[in-house]
Design brief:
The complex is a heterotrimer of chains A (229), B (432) and C (307). With 229 residues, chain A is an alpha+beta fold. Helices cover 35% and strands 19% of the residues of chain A. In chain A, the strands form two sheets. In chain A, strands 2-3-4-10-9-6 form a six-stranded antiparallel sheet. In chain A, strands 5-7-8 form a three-stranded antiparallel sheet. With 432 residues, chain B is an all-alpha fold. Chain B has 14 helices and one strand, in the order ααααααααααααααβ. Chain C is globular, with a radius of gyration of 27 Å. The two termini of chain C are 39 Å apart. Classes of the chains: A alpha+beta (229), B mainly alpha (432), C alpha+beta (307). Chains in contact: A-B, A-C, B-C. Chains A and B meet through α1, β1, α3 and α6 of A and β1 of B. β1 of chain A pairs antiparallel with β1 of chain B.
Chain lengths: 229, 432, 307
Amino acid sequence: MEGFSFVDIFATKGVEYIIVMAFLAAFIYFSRYLAYRSPVPENATEERPVSYFRVPDGYHFHQGHSWLRKEKNSMGVVGLDDFAQKLVGKVESVELPRVGYHVAQGEKGWSLVAGSKSIPMLAPVSGEVVAVNQEILRSPGILSEDPYGKGWLFKVRSPKIESDTRQLLSGKVARAWMEDALDKLRPQNPENLGPVLADGGIPIEGIAPALGGEEWDKLARTHLLTDQV
Amino acid sequence: MERNNTIALPKGKSPTGADTVKGFFRFVLGELKPKGKILTPFNVISGLIILGGLILIVIRFAYGLGSITNLSQEYPWGIWIGFDVVTGVAFAGGAYTLCFVVHILNFKKYEPILKATVLNGFLAYCFYAGALLLDLGRPWNVINPIIGNAFGYSSVLFLVAWHFLLYTICQFVEVFPAVTEWLYWPKVRRYAKLCTTGAVIFGITLSTLHQSGLGALFMMASNKIHPLWYSGNIPILFFVSSIFAGLSMVIAESTISHRVFRAQISPHHHASFNDIVLGMAKGALGALFAYFFLKMIDLIHGSQWSLINTPMGYWYLVEIIGGIVIPIILFTVAILKNNVRLVQFTAVITALGVILNRLNISVIAFKWYSANRYYPSWAEIWVTAAVICMEIWAFRWIVSRMPIMNEHPAFPEEEKIDHKEAEVVQWKVSAS
Amino acid sequence: MTISRRKFLQVAGLTGSALLAGGRKPADAAGSAQAAQVGQAEKKGVEFYGMLVDTTKCIGCRSCEEACNEKNKLPKPEVSFSSDSVFEKKRDTTPEAYTVLNKFPNPKDPEKPIFVRKQCMHCNQPACATACLVKALEKTPEGPVRYNKDRCMGCRYCMVSCPFDAPKYEYNSNMPYLQKCVFCSDLVNKGESPACVEACPEGASLFGKRRELIEIARQRIYQNPDKYHPYIYGEHEAGGTSMLFLSSVPVEKLDFRMNVGTLPYPEKTTGFLYAVPHIFILWPTFLYGLSYLTSQKKDKESGHGEE
């Protein structure tokens, strides 16, 4: 630069900033696009419609088909498992304990209301209820979508959580127990179910209502171990 | 066992009534009423300061900047820029640092204080942008670089101004979920939460650039800033010091908030507080350590040794030793001894060191050779104090009403659970 | 990362509005650093005008000050332009006086003091124009750095950046403007000489193309080695300025700033500004990658209980 005429060393700055904005826009768009399209297959096989009962790791299951997920500082989250949800089917409302209430492991924790029937379930852990899931109270349908995540029922503070957990099942052992439970569910008289189970599908109104007819709540209670409650 | 042991929420009814426009205004206006005692010593003193500040501001707009400030042709920038804007923004650096730690590195341990820190950062930017408007000669033209027909993109200040605006929006997006919980707008909240990661990433990028940008503002004043402070690396130094300035401010502010808003904080949060403070002390220590060596490189690179033996040189040593070396030593001791009190004390010293550094570059080492040195007028100090008090009032109003220090009972933290497909059991169609 | 449409629209909206508001695109759209350096003006053959101030010829009559005052319609000063009493103190430009004379003792000839004009130097690459975020201060291709007062918002960043402290501010007005010599840009941009040059009776201030003025200055030095100190102040200072000064004594004796350096001042910010787009691209990529990686390794609590 000999310094006799006009030189603008920032002449291209405007274009550079426009390139930056284009980059950011493209970045956002592509990262969203990739996130949506990233391969997590819904169902691995499409040949035959099979029903999956989810028994995830990290959860501790009570034989009454409720689960506990442990958190820090003796806190735990409680819910009902995929089996219970599919067993009872369409739940109209859930009756949950109030905050401050004490639940006891193996005793009634809450009730599911479907039709005129009320199905109690056992609590997997003892402790004091510190929070209740308001979403479930408003839309119990979440139970069928996501019984292990958004479908959590309430949180407890449980000083004896470690010893209580030892009474519960998880991992491979839990999956074996679930297979057992499914076996027990197999109907005594198959003719009742023919069309429902021919394609392996779970009846929408719930397995118990489909199998048990008018008194299906007794069937549900039997499998949820609350027939004496 | 009772049957009616449930919490009932009336279906579909918002507990705040803010789901209509009229309801919204009624709710918000109702919330403007002060809670608690009005005539506390703090309220009275800060109220008087604010009142005085407002009067001074009116005078400033009626008679010009010269009427209440000590700005001169020699010193175009005083403490309204040097302290309110430059130092204030450095202190708000805690917001992007903690967002990085919690949202990018996924250290959920610091989550309890995140909302308060981001809120503080948001309010800091809002109020310091306000203080900037006071300093501008013609503040109504401040929209010119935003919508004007001539973008001065050769200017570092252009960049800083735009980043201020964008970053304030980012911080608002990060704070907005808490506002929606207060207003009880669950659907809006869900959308707001989706934007969080993007706002965080964009916010950290913007922060890096405008924290260093505030330093780059002084690059062209090369023959006016004392050589011990001026270097080509001022932007990097400003960026690194904003990290420990921000963390120190977070430590100091959360200490005060934990006492003032004690009732709101869950026992879970209280228990982890000491842990959080020590963790932040470690972060601040790391940044201080790096900063010290960066400063040493600058000192040697500029061959400025001989200047240390001058009055300004001694002042430089005060800033380095008092503001950097001593905090390094004290933080190390405090971390080794798990001493939270010492951490809080050192945080205050570090903050003072940062204030000193920023003021040095903007007004003290700036034209240090001048016969008429600048010192702030009492009115400038008063207005600065008023701005700070207003910010504290806003912070207090928000924290007393919105779920900042705690979780809203109706919106507890949801966790995303990944379900692996291997963890399923098949319903066998045929009997085994 | 689940960024909703909202964020995308936000960014797109900002992009769109910025484009609509018209970021200025360079006439030369090639956009490479090389191309930018060549400069549009040179292609059209427009060169800087300048002013050569020969302090050996200045008699201190202050006609230049008076002419400037009239041309720019500045308020009349309290002390008249013909008074010498102003020289008792060192003077600086003010919002009401764009150019001022200062008197210095002459070591070579005590009878003939040296008078030196002081005003904006109209640098080739002005720090103030680079600093101005609303382009209120602009370097015109003909040389003058002119002030567009409607755009100014009074941030005074130009005052901080100027190595010569040329711009002055109206602190005592509630509608303040910046005040500095604008090299009579309306005249110079047409090739006519500014008011102060027209008024100078001795020809101490000379107007012409900067290239030619430097030739003239060099000639004067070569032809009169005892009269002139061999230095043209403004030839290289701050990368070169339109105002050029000749003197009979070393210029540091005349209160000229010697610590300005020869690097053009805007180049002191290029290190930072050139890095900005790089950070805008690298930081989000890096941060997104980091957040993606750390979200994968969620520590799971033990999933195997005992019976």
